Amino acid sequence: MSTPSVFKWRHFLPEIILLNVRWYCRYALSYRDLEEMMAERGIEVDHSTINRWVLKYAPELDKRIRPNLRPTNDSWRVDETYIKIKGQWKYLYRAVDSLGNTLDFLLSAKRDAAAAERFLRKMLNAPHTQTPRVINVDKNAAYPPAVDELKADAQLSETTQLRQVKYLNNQVEQDHRFIKRLTKPGLGFASFNSARRTLRGMEAMNMIRKGQVQGVAKGDVRAQIEFVSQIFGLVA
User: Fold this and answer.
1) CA end-to-end distance (rounded Å), the chain
2) Which of 98, 128, 133, 234 has its CA 20 to 30 A from that of 7?
3) pTM above the 0.85 mark?
4) E strand spans, 56-140
């Protein structure tokens, strides 16, 4: 099998590159952890090289899983969590449906109505989501004007209900833990762009882990590995 074009001119086999990207985006490992794990297998690769692989292929992973995601339902839970970038806290908007399936995510420098509207609009345009019957949020004052603006644009149905009840969002707050656990070994990101690109891979692997890919069950690790290889053209 010829090397897929996305891996052309790389000095390592595509399988090695993808293994490192998948592990970094799935498990709480640092780049130096992966460097040592590769050395145990007789493969000499610097941690900075693995970092470049993740920045290159994590967004590709997110892009390639999108057409394969199962449809989500119309009950949304929307919240923000904090991500440290260059020593400063930024905002990661995240949302799940009532079954815990990831709807979408958005990294933002600000936590305001414009950011909330941008995130809601992104979810509405995602191919695996549907127009929400209800949107559950916390007491953040940014959401009502964002929802009003989307209804005025006819992006949201007038019947969509916005519920600002904090305890209803326990589900998405619990879901934050997986992403927060992955970001701890790196002790924050060096730039907004590197955070944005890396988080795309982490969120993609989280969706695969939760069984959101069509034909790939939750807990079926072998099928999940094969799926990632398939979408990158490494298996027939």
Assistant:
1) 9
2) 128
3) yes
4) 75-85, 88-97, 102-108, 134-137
Strand-pairing partners, residue 97, are 76
Tell me the CB-side half-sphere exposure of residue 25, using CA atoms within 13 A: 35
Q: Which residues contact 166 (CB under 8 A, 6 or more apart)?
A: 138, 139
The Cα 25–Cα 125 span in angstroms is 25
Residues 24 and 50 sit within 8 Å (Cβ to Cβ): yes
Please tell me the distance from the alpha carbon of residue 99 to that of residue 76, in angstroms, as a whole number. Answer: 10
User: What domains appear along the chain, each with residue ranges and CATH number?
Assistant: 5-68+188-231 (no CATH), 75-178 (3.30.420.10)
Question: From residue 199, how far is each of 3, 7, 50, 85 by CA, in Å?
Answer: 26, 21, 15, 12
Q: Which residues pair with 214 in a beta bridge?
A: none
- Which tokens go with 212? 């959101």
pLDDT in the model for residue 188: 77
Q: Which two tokens stand for residue 117?
A: 């509207």
> Could you tell me the two tokens for 52?
């470049």
Q: Using CB atoms within 10 A of its CB, is residue 98 exposed (0-12), middle (13-18) or buried (19+)?
A: middle
Q: Give me the residue label for tokens 């952890």.
A: 33
3-state secondary structure of 46: coil
pLDDT tens, position by position, 73-94 = 999 999 999 999 998 999 999 9
